[in-house]
Each structure stands twice: as structure tokens, then as C-alpha cells.
Specification:
This protein is α+β, with helices and mostly antiparallel strands. The chain has a domain at 21-71. The protein is 12% helix and 22% strand. The chain contains 1 helix and 4 strands, in the order ββββα. It has one helix spanning 59-68; strands spanning 20-24, 31-35, 41-44, 51-54. Strands 1-2 form a two-stranded antiparallel ribbon. A two-stranded antiparallel sheet has the order 3-4. A hairpin with a 6-residue loop joins strand 3 and strand 4 (51-54). It is flat and about 55 Å long. 0% of the residues are buried. The mean pLDDT is 91.
């Protein structure tokens, strides 16, 4: 094994943004995470294993948030960088 000194890795900035939404299971109230559900779909609870339909989110709203936050780049903590 070599004992080379390695250059420290610089912190990595975000390059993309996705919206994680939580839907309560109507059977057990467990919160189910869903990633950008823009079409009507059925969710399966990972706690009680029941399925239920979820209301989709507006794709234009998601696009708006991504544009406003510059795909996550604008959400960087300015005190950190």
C-alpha cells in the first residue's frame, strides 16, 4: 500500500432538483414518499401494504420551482460557499 497524500475533495454542488411529496396512507396514516407524481397513480403503503390512488401534482408548478431554484443551484447556502 502506498502512503500518498490525497488532495481533499471539494464539496459538491447540486445539479438537479426533484420534489418529494408525502401522501398519508388512508388505512394506517403512514406517510408514503412519492417523487414528482404528475399523473394519477396508485401508491402502495410500505407499512400496511394496502394500495390507494393519489392526486397528482401540477407539472407546471414543478417546472416553475425548478426554474426558480435553478435546478437546486439557487438553494445553496450562501454562508457555506
Amino acid at each position: 500500500m502506498s502512503t500518498r497524500t490525497r488532495k481533499p475533495v471539494a464539496p459538491v454542488k447540486p445539479v438537479a432538483l426533484e420534489l418529494l411529496l408525502f401522501y398519508p396512507c388512508p388505512f394506517c396514516e403512514h406517510k408514503i414518499p412519492m417523487l414528482n407524481p404528475v399523473k394519477p397513480t396508485v401508491a402502495k403503503c410500505d407499512s400496511c401494504l394496502n394500495t390507494f390512488p393519489v392526486v397528482p401534482v401540477d407539472a407546471r408548478t414543478l417546472s416553475f420551482l425548478k426554474v426558480i431554484l435553478d435546478n437546486g443551484k439557487a438553494s445553496i447556502d450562501p454562508d457555506f460557499m
